[in-house]
Structure formats: structure tokens, C-alpha cells
Specification:
alpha/beta
Length: about 775
């Protein structure tokens, strides 16, 4: 049976096929108990950990319900053997990506190396871009630049760094500096309307494939320690066009794959006409075609590079790749090649400045999904930190290092910093940035050491590799569903709920609309046998597919103006019964669903009233436990937004804990805005990272942990440690009140059986600081 897990992640290489060739950087040993890494990189004795036991400022816990273990069963399939075990890592993989203005001149490179040497340990690797412009270079120009880069890499190695090349333009990003780019003899990327991007070339064009072969021969023989393929290798977003490629080469290949010849016009019509089954089948076939296009390109690159340099590591930079088919595991296996060379990955996607700081967590969730699609054999996963266009005041040094930490919390094992200027500015303008990154390096190492490649577990906004195939089947918008992942679910998660990015790690699954359309009926039943929080659009879709016996509710009608939610008297609402939430439909146009219970056990959590306090509907949100044991919550009134008052945020956390049958590994009980990531518990050990996502200091933050440990270790971004003693709470949880967390700061929390003993801390009862 094709499980949901298999749809998310393709087959991974076997454990006995260990990567060969140049390995990762040598890691330093673990710090001894009580030691922290000093600014110089040398272990120093830390101050005695403080003890902290404040228990004030708590939300009521009496209404939390007990539950039994929730498993995904068939949903995840059997666990992989040793090959799926998370590797032990001791340090973060840190690199700096350096543009051509920083290395073309020998003098400028020496200035850069002097800056990095001043802050020894700030990076392990220095990666040189082969170009600064975003359209492919002619081969003779590429050769001239690579000859210089070869000399520069030799100099960099003298100082003990690993160094390699970042091929910025394999097929090209977009139209830039076209007079000095490849000529028009190569087929341009083409959209379904026949529009082209003259700065990006089709990877299925035989002439372009020959160009790529010769380019990577040149790159490999330049002598890099590794090669990075940039994120121009994608099929969406080649400005000025969006979805590609529908050139004659690609249409011909797709015709052979699908046994149906199409023109651009006939294919555009077929995507949005005919039966839903026909449209879905065609879209799935096109996603397979896109996956195969990138697979063929990587097969060419792998064979070319490893013919020249067997075992040379290859890396790939990605963003979210739904339109391309998200076939990360297969692509990684291809890049590794028959010799099982090491493969690197660089997840990324935007957040170039700090003008909209909540975008940081949104990017972290995107990064988390990218990491979840990778096989465990990929160990060096360096998030992209991109401060484009590198104006120093566009992103602060603090937010830069917090972003790196946040992406590690979401699943990365390191960071690739692209933060230096491209306009010839004196490097002393960037020294404060480099110094701040060096100061944060010990914290990055701690995060990777304790979080590593372990799965992140908790609340899973549903996605799978075929999500794009079902997006807006009627209108043809392949990316319509991404608003759910990028714009809606982050607001719910920042209430202090742990984010998960795969069904294997899900205690609760979030659903919207027809997001489950790629799944078979059997797979849908698997989802609905667990904990599910859904909006009314998902309810209507599921009921329409015949799953009404598992949802417990039906939409009677939708109301579009002047509705206010009122919490009902129900144990899950606790002391907040009667509280109202007005999300102002006149400003924010989301329909309010009037729900009708369809099963005796379906219970209302809230209804609707109007501005005259008159009841409009008895139920707009409710819960239900179905005969498969699944627990369902349908939220019909602004289910993803305007959740940030005390009563609603408390209700949401209460409901999700109930849905999980007390299997949420952790959550923030108190009234704070926190992004939270938790690793899969291993025995009595658990690690989690949390960011105060507010400009207010988080005082009295109460963290609920599913543990029997009496104390936890809390480490701030400077490496200072505090021991926090907890207290018993309802069910399998203990409650820990943390010391204040400053605005936009992160904490690493470690749960161990005897935290105090491990740190040689005193065992006397703690006192408030």
C-alpha cells in the first residue's frame, strides 16, 4: 500500500550504502559538564547553573483531559532499520558564501580572510560563487573565472578551511546582463502561454545539456572540495514567467511519457477541463514529468563530476518545490551516485530583510518541510541565510543569527551565510555581523548537538509530494494551496504549539479545503483515525467524499457578515465559557460556518452571536470522537487567524491536547507568543528549541512537557544555563516556569532524567531568583 509517508518522502539509500569520499569537517569533542565554548572556541568553565522554580502566572489546567497513546500505525508504515537512525553530530556545519567581488581580486580576498581569521571559528567552509549575475555564462568566461577561483581556493586551504564552488547558474535564474550571457541558440524556459525567460534555459534541450556537461567538467577540474548546485535548478519562478517548461522539447518528452501528444493550448485546456479524475491524472503525470526533468539533469551532473573527481561531494540548494514534485530523496540519491559520495543540502526561500520579522518563522517552517523530505544519509544541511542585496541596515546581526538558529531548530544541521556586500564596500562595514555570527557559533553547535537530525514532532500542517497536483483543479492554479501552509498555519503554531513536518511526527494534523485530495480513501481514513483540526472547507470536502461518519458534523450554511464567536460551557473551554471573539467579518472576509452535529457524540465548543448579543447559530466549532478512535475538531469561524487573545489561544491549546490524546510532547501553557520545535523523545531524553516571537519580554512562561523529569536545563543564546524545577500537572505532563525570555530570543531546553547530577548542580530545593 502507498502510505502517506511514502508520498512525502521517496525511497532513501540503504544504511549499508554509506557515503564515501571527502567527509564532513572534523568535529570537536563534546564539552564537559558545566563547560561552555568561549569566544575563542576554547571550552571554558561556565558559572554554576542557576535554579529557577517560579510557579506564578499560570493558566488553569483543571479541564485538561487524559488520553491514551496516539499512533499513526499504517499511516507511517514500518520504521526503517538502522539506516533511519539519526546520526550523532557534535558541531554545526557553518559556511560563508562569497560573491565574485570578494575573491576576484587577490587583495580583496586577503582582506576577507583577515576578517574571518580575526574571528577564528566563525566558519568551517568558504564557498565561492562562480558568477555574480543570474543568467548562464558563456563557457570561455566561466573558464576564465574558474582559473582564478582555483588559485583562490588554494590560498583559502592554507588557512585550514574547506573550500568549494557554488555554480550560481546551471540553467539560469532570470533575465540579467543578457549581453554577456548565453546566446539565443539555447532553448529558453517557456510557460504554457508561450512566453519565455531569456535568462534561463531548458534543461531538456540537448544543446543545453551539452553546455551543462562542459560547464561541470570545468568546475570539477578547478579543484573544489565540493560543488554546490544553486536553486536556479527549478521549474517555477524564472522571471518574467512563472511555471515552466512547456517548450517543444518538454512537450515532446511528455508526449512519450503520457502517450498523448499536446500543444501548449491543448495541455492548458486539459489541465482545467474534463472530469476531476481526468484532470488529477494529467496533473500527476505532469508532476512526474517535472520530477524526471530534474532527475535527468542531476544524472548528467553527477556522472560528469564524478568521472572527473570520484567521490566529490555535491550539494543542492532548494526552496519549497511543490511544482517540481518535491522528489528530494530521489534527487539526493542520484547526486550521490554509484560511489555513494556525500550529498549536501541547502534549504532556503526568502526572508532577505527584517522588515517583516514574522516571516522568519514562516521561512523556518518552509525549511522544516524541505528537511523532512530528505533521507537521513544527508547530514550536512546548511540553511540559506540570504541578506540580499546585502545592505547592512536591511537585516540586523541579531536577526541574522536568530534566523540561523531558528532554521536549525526546524531541522537543519548548520547554516550557509550569504551576508557580505557585492558593491565593493569596505569589509569593516560588515565586521559587526561577522563578530555576532562568531559569538553565536557555540549556540549553533549546541542546537545541532542536541537537536540534530531527529524528527520534529507535534502539530503537522498536512502536505505531501503530490499537493500541487490537486491545487485549484477547476482554475488551474498549481500553487493555490500554499496559502494554507505559509499564511494560515504559522499563526496557530506561534501560540506555543510544536511544529512537525511529516506524518511520522504528527500528534495532530491540520487540514484545510481539499488538501487531502491526493490521498486514497484508505489513506484518508488513516488520517481521520488520528487527531485532526480542520476548517469547514475541509469538512465539506471530506463529507463530499463520503467520510461524514468520521467527521461528526456537516455545514448547514455559511454566514458572511456580523458574526461573533461565543465559547460554550464545555470542559475544553474551562473558565472561558461565555467569552466572545469578534474577527470583524466586515474587514476580514472569511465566512462563518453554521455546523450541524451529525452524530450523538458530536459536541459544540462555540456558537455565533450578532452585535445585539442574539444567538445566530448554536454551533460553529465542535469536537467529535469517531468509531476509528480519531478525534476531530471542526473550526468554522476564523480557524487560522485572530487566535491571539487569551481565551481563544487557551481554547486552541486545550483542544489540540485533547485531539492528541495527550501525545503532544510539549506546548506553552501560558499566554505567550512562542515558536516551538521538539525532537522525537528518546527514552527519558528530549530536546526542544523555542523563540519568544514577541517584542515583549516573556515573563512567567509556563512550558508543559510530557516527561517524568523533575528538572530541565535551559540554555540561552549566550550559553548561560539555568536549572528549572517543575511541578506535576494533569495527566502525563509536568509544568516548568522558565526565567524571562527577552524579545526575539531563543532558548534550548534539555530534558534528562537527572539534569542536576549531570551538571554537578546542588540538589537543594530551588529558590526564586
Amino acid at each position: 500500500m502507498k502510505t502517506i509517508a511514502s508520498m512525502l518522502r521517496a525511497r532513501t539509500p540503504h544504511a549499508d550504502a554509506a557515503p564515501q569520499g571527502p567527509g564532513p569537517v572534523v568535529h570537536e569533542p563534546l564539552l564537559a559538564p558545566g563547560e561552555v565554548k568561549g569566544r575563542s572556541g576554547v571550552a571554558e568553565q561556565s558559572p554554576q547553573p542557576r535554579r529557577y522554580t517560579r510557579c506564578e502566572i499560570r493558566l488553569p489546567t483543571w479541564w485538561w483531559l487524559l488520553g491514551v497513546s496516539l499512533t499513526w500505525g499504517i499511516l507511517c508504515g514500518p520504521a526503517d532499520a538502522e539506516g533511519d537512525a539519526a546520526p550523532n553530530l557534535e558541531r554545526a556545519f557553518i559556511s560563508f558564501r562569497v560573491g565574485t567581488p570578494q575573491w576576484r581580486s587577490e587583495q580583496r580576498l586577503e582582506e576577507l580572510l583577515a576578517l574571518l581569521e580575526k574571528y577564528t571559528g566563525v566558519t568551517d567552509e568558504i564557498t565561492l560563487f562562480h558568477s555574480i549575475t543570474h543568467a548562464p555564462l558563456p563557457l570561455d568566461e566561466a573558464q576564465r573565472r574558474l582559473d582564478v577561483a582555483s588559485q583562490r581556493m588554494a590560498r583559502i586551504r592554507q588557512l585550514g578551511y574547506r573550500t568549494g564552488l557554488n555554480v550560481l547558474t546551471t540553467i539560469g535564474h532570470h533575465e540579467e546582463d543578457l549581453p554577456r550571457a548565453l546566446t539565443d541558440e539555447y532553448t529558453p524556459m517557456t510557460d504554457i502561454h508561450g512566453n519565455i525567460c531569456r535568462g534561463s534555459r531548458c534543461p531538456n534541450d540537448p544543446r543545453m545539456r551539452e553546455y551543462i556537461r562542459r560547464l561541470y567538467q570545468l568546475v570539477a577540474t578547478a579543484g573544489p572540495d565540493y560543488i554546490w548546485i544553486d536553486d536556479d535548478v527549478r521549474l517555477a519562478g524564472h522571471m518574467p514567467i512563472h511555471l515552466t517548461c512547456f517548450c517543444d522539447h518538454c512537450l515532446g518528452i511528455f508526449g512519450k511519457e503520457s502517450a498523448t501528444l499536446h500543444t501548449r493550448d491543448s495541455l492548458r485546456e486539459a489541465f482545467v477541463t474534463g472530469t476531476e479524475t481526468d484532470r488529477l491524472s494529467l496533473r500527476r503525470a505532469w508532476l512526474d514529468h517535472n520530477r524526471a526533468t530534474i532527475a535527468r539533469l542531476f544524472t548528467l551532473i553527477e556522472a560528469t563530476v564524478h568521472e572527473q573527481k570520484p567521490g566529490l561531494p555535491l550539494g543542492f540548494m532548494t526552496g519549497e518545490r511543490f511544482y517540481e514534485g518535491y522528489d528530494f530523496a530521489r534527487w539526493a540519491e542520484i547526486l550521490s551516485g554509484p560511489g555513494r559520495a556525500e550529498v549536501f543540502w541547502r534549504p532556503g526561500g526568502g526572508f532577505y530583510n527584517d522588515e517583516h520579522i514574522p516571516g522568519l518563522a514562516q521561512k523556518s517552517h518552509q525549511v522544516g518541510r524541505q528537511v523532512a523530505g530528505l533521507p537521513r544519509e544527508v547530514v550536512s544541511i546548511q540553511s540559506e541565510i540570504e541578506n540580499f542585496p546585502y545592505h547592512r541596515l536591511k537585516k540586523s546581526a541579531h536577526i541574522t543569527v536568530l534566523e540561523a538558529a531558528s532554521h536549525i531548530a526546524a531541522g537543519c544541521t548548520g547554516t550557509a551565510f550569504n551576508v557580505l556586500g557585492i558593491d565593493g564596500e569596505p569589509l569593516d562595514e560588515y565586521e559587526s555581523m561577522v563578530a555576532r555570527i562568531r559569538g553565536a557559533r557555540p549556540f549553533f553547535d549546541l542546537l545541532v548537538r542536541h537537536l540534530g537530525r531527529s524528527p520534529r514532532v507535534g502539530v503537522f500542517p498536512f502536505w505531501c509530494k503530490d499537493s500541487a497536483a490537486t491545487s485549484d483543479l477547476a482554475g488551474g492554479n498549481w500553487t493555490a494551496f500554499t496559502g494554507f501552509l505559509d499564511s494560515l498555519t504559522p499563526g496557530l503554531l506561534e501560540l506555543g504549539l510544536p511544529a512537525s513536518y511529516s506524518p511520522e511526527g504528527a500528534s495532530v494534523t491540520l487540514l484545510s479545503g481539499d488538501i487531502l485530495a491526493p490521498l486514497s480513501d484508505e489513506q484518508v481514513r488513516e488520517v481521520l483515525s488520528g487527531g485532526v483540526y480542520m476548517d469547514a472547507f475541509a469538512l465539506d470536502y471530506l463529507n463530499g467524499r463520503g467520510f461524514g461518519d468520521l467527521t461528526g458534523f456537516a455545514t448547514e450554511k455559511s454566514l458572511h457578515r456580523d458574526c461573533i464567536e461565543q465559547l460554550a460551557a464545555h470542559p475544553l473551554n474551562g473558565p472561558f465559557a461565555g467569552r466572545v471573539r469578534d474577527s470583524r467579518q466586515s474587514f476580514n472576509h472569511w465566512p462563518a460556518a453554521v455546523l450541524q452535529p451529525t452524530a450523538p457524540k458530536a459536541e459544540a465548543l462555540s456558537g455565533l452571536v450578532d452585535y445585539g448579543d442574539q444567538q445566530v447559530a448554536a454551533c460553529t466549532m465542535g469536537v467529535f470522537e469517531n468509531h476509528l478512535g480519531g478525534r476531530i475538531c471542526v473550526a468554522g469561524y476564523f480557524p487560522w487567524t485572530f487566535l491571539h487573545n487569551l481565551s481563544k489561544s487557551a481554547q486552541v491549546k486545550s483542544v489540540l491536547r485533547w485531539l492528541s490524546k495527550d501525545q503532544l510532547p510539549a506546548y506553552v501553557e501560558s499566554f505567550h507568543k512562542v515558536n516551538l520545535w521538539v525532537t522525537e523523545p528518546a527514552g527519558d531524553r528530549m530536546a526542544l528549541a523555542m523563540t519568544n516571537a514577541s517584542f515583549d519580554e516573556a515573563e512567567g512562561l509556563a512550558l508543559m512537557l510530557r516527561t517524568e523529569a523533575e528538572e530541565i536545563r535551559v540554555l540561552d543564546m549566550d550559553g548561560d544555563e539555568t536549572l528549572v524545577r517543575g511541578e506535576a500537572a494533569a495527566g502525563p505532563y509536568r509544568r516548568f516556569v522558565l526565567p524571562p525570555i527577552e524579545a526575539w530570543q531563543m532558548r534550548l531546553v534539555l530534558v534528562e532524567e537527572n539534569a542536576a547530577d549531570k551538571l554537578d548542580a546542588p540538589t537543594a530545593d530551588a529558590a526564586s531568583p
